[in-house]
Amino acid sequence: MMLCVVLVASSMQYASAFSSTTNRITTPTTSNQQQRRQFLSSISTSIIIQSLATQPANAAIRDPKTGILLPSVGEIESSIPQTWDEDDNPFASLSESVSFSRLDASDDKIFYAEPRFVEHVDQQAVDSITSYVSDSLLQNGDSVLDLCSSWTSHITPGKLDLKRVAGLGMNAKELEANKALTEWAVQDLNENKNVKLPYENDSFDVVMCQLSIDYLIHPLEVMKEVARVLKPGGKVAILISNRLFLTKAVGLWTGSDDIEHAYTVGSYLQYCGGGFGDIKAEDLSTRKKSGKERMIVGDPLYVITATKS
Description:
Layout: E1 9-10, H1 11-16, H2 30-42, E2 61-62, E3 69-70, H3 96-99, H4 108-111, H5 123-137, E4 143-149, E5 164-169, H6 172-177, E6 183-186, E7 204-210, H7 219-229, E8 230-240, E9 243-244, H8 251-254, H9 258-271, E10 276-283, E11 302-308
Parallel strand pairs: 4-5, 4-7, 5-6, 7-8
Antiparallel strand pairs: 1-9, 2-3, 8-11, 10-11
């Protein structure tokens, strides 16, 4: 599930180095959503050219130990607008060559040539991914596409009777080791803007992408293809954290915080032209059970979902 294969930095650590945000910000409002749209619309003039300097972040709490900005309870959910306006499409005026540029623009086939049999978030987050995928997202009889797959799909062995689990990833040895897959294929989703997934129309009940969306340089085109291979009424689930390999993530991602990440993914789904609806975001992070802020404990985890019309 991951195009990401090495963790050397957190996007929040990167963003916080440039942010002047105070330690406490109120729950996002319509004004905050407009700021996020403006952030995405204006980012093409600032990303990469200005060393990926970020706009002021909207995340609510700064972890006193790490300096990382994290959302309060409910802020990830409220990052997705209740209604979408086509006039607010943040990608209509973006410079793709800047917004989706990376510090390391070398061929991804080189970067992913060697298998890496490791997790890219902490064990607590891994357990949360597994619980969400196996207990909430998937159902018996589903045909599933694990997009940007790897050596694990976080599907609990023996728990579900799935009709099909196809894995699409970058490293054959990792995919071969994934016991959840009934089939797999290697494809570089960044190689061609006119990307075509190797599956027929209306093939899958669920498409999931885990901890990899931040590495796609053609996310709108990929999400449109996801819609094509989903059955009508099928669901896409994009799981994200703030862990990443900084040099391979796109500039649009590294210059923003977790709330903006959720909004960005929601925007991918809304404006890709795939006919997605019911776009939602959910905070799956483990939080302290007490305290005013109920701080996130360990690596954060969020999921953005949508349904094909």
